Amino acid sequence: MASESLGMEAGAEKSDGLVFHPMDQFIVKPFFGEGAVGTFTFTNSSFWMVMTVLAATALLVLGTSGRSVIPSRIQSIAELCYGFIRKMVEDVAGKDALPYFPYIMTLFVFIIFANFLGLLPGAFTPTSHIAVTAILAMAVFLTVTVMGFVKNGAGFLGLFWVSSAPLPLRPVLALIEVISYFVRPVSHSIRLAGNMMAGHAVIKVFAAFAPMILLSTGLGLLVTPLSILAITAVYALEVLVAFIQAYVFTILTCVYLKDALHPHH
Amino acid sequence: MATEATQTGHVSPVSLEEAGVCVDSHGGAIGMPQLCGEWMGNQIFWLLLTLVVLYFVLSRVALPRIEAILAERQGTITNDLAAAEDLKVKAEEAEQAYQKALADARAEAQAIVAEAKAEIQADLDAATAKADAQIAAKAAEGEKKIAEIRETALDNVKAVAKDTAKEIVAAMGGKADARTVTAAINARMKG
Amino acid sequence: MEGDIVQMGAYIGAGLACMGMGGAAVGVGNVAGNYLAGALRNPSAAAGQTATLFIGIAFAEALGIFSFLVALLLMFAV
């Protein structure tokens, strides 16, 4: 076991033990050829982001090109997606948040397609990188904060002043509210990236156990089927998580948006 | 195996990352690839690019189109419902007309039946009256005859009584005055 | 030699950090269990609260993810 855990540290040594590289799948590298990764290099991450946009376009634009009153299957999926997010925005953030619906829809569609495409074997998951999710979360945070001040002026600060609490408690609560407000983008981004990374890394760890049968037949007969079963189970969980995390990211965006539009508790 | 790490010497991934190296000589990751600063700029650039493209695709093409489709479907459904409502009203009107016709026909039939009944009654009454009149006439005639017969019979009884009384008186040896006998008989007959 | 001790400490720390995931598991189970209990008492109100359920699960789960992240950082980044 010690050799296995060290194999991880020692890199891609051609060893005869099990080889664990759970984090190698997150390496960003140029999509064409070799070389350093500059700001404008087309990398595997860029490739899957572009694929995400293409897949979303295929579903929402090509899928609805029939414009039929009785929808085809793909068109009803697109309509379902539209109705799902629109209802969420209306229910959670209120009717006056509808102008921001395309923005929220963009976030949802991007995240869910990136998550699902990342589940394809050999694919790269852009949303497993904190740099990506941090930008998504910061965009939401900045939009909500700026909009809160533009719409409500100084009244937006009422969000932190819990007027229903007893007066002596209010400064303490205000401090907690301010901290929790600034923690929002952190948890918002790390939740998504962490979930994606965790699932993929766990699958990779189980996958590393699978070739055990090549090393020792006795132990392998027990470990290899178990690890393959575990990969399947974790993969199924990841499909669920891919949807739930996109949903949670979107609904939290709606909750923050509601705070900006109606800051008074 | 455990000696490998000491052979190469443990190099903290952080120091490598600070030097701008995130991948070791074999292509494996050093530390977490998520924390590699070298790749962040690239990801952020492409993320912003793809997000902006996706935003414009959605807000300019996809969402208005889906909204139009949904609105059109809503319109179609509303129209169909209105048409169905119209047809329902029409069907109800037709049913009412049918019921009215049925009621009219029934009333007419009853009128015809009543008329026929009245006619028959009238005929019957007339016939009855005629028969009554005939019967009355015949009854009157019969009574008259009975009265005549009774009168004649009375006269006959008087004549027989007169004769008998005259004979009886004669047989007794008396001399019967005709006038006296008649008076006596009349007195008796009255009494 | 010094590096080995640092590595050992990092691995022990990573293992300790994984205990936080158990807390997240308890939290998520608590949220889902209470939701189910409430939903069985009043099924008509359950459908309207699924969003709250997911938000609650997401908050509880995020803390587990944080501990997982700490473990990963200790394993790979220290």
From TrEMBL, chain C:
UniProt-annotated location(s): Cell membrane; Membrane
All copies of domain V-ATPase proteolipid subunit C-like, residue ranges: 12-74
Organism whose genome encodes this protein: Roseovarius nubinhibens (strain ATCC BAA-591 / DSM 15170 / ISM)
Keyword Glycosyltransferase attributed: no
Known role: F(1)F(0) ATP synthase produces ATP from ADP in the presence of a proton or sodium gradient. F-type ATPases consist of two structural domains, F(1) containing the extramembraneous catalytic core and F(0) containing the membrane proton channel, linked together by a central stalk and a peripheral stalk. During catalysis, ATP synthesis in the catalytic domain of F(1) is coupled via a rotary mechanism of the central stalk subunits to proton translocation.
NCBIfam families per the UniProt record, alphabetical: PRK07558.1
Name of the coding gene: atpE
Pfam families assigned to the protein according to its UniProt record, in alphabetical order: ATP-synt_C
Residues annotated as site: Reversibly protonated during proton transport: E61
GO CC terms, sorted: plasma membrane; proton-transporting ATP synthase complex; proton-transporting two-sector ATPase complex, proton-transporting domain
Protein name: ATP synthase subunit c
Main location: membrane
Molecular functions per Gene Ontology: lipid binding; proton-transporting ATP synthase activity, rotational mechanism
Keywords: ATP synthesis, Cell membrane, CF(0), Hydrogen ion transport, Ion transport, Lipid-binding, Membrane, Transmembrane, Transmembrane helix, Transport
Family (UniProt): Belongs to the ATPase C chain family.
Membrane-crossing segments per the record: 12-33, 53-77
Membrane topology, as annotated: Multi-pass membrane protein
Cited SUPFAM superfamilies: F1F0 ATP synthase subunit C (SSF81333)
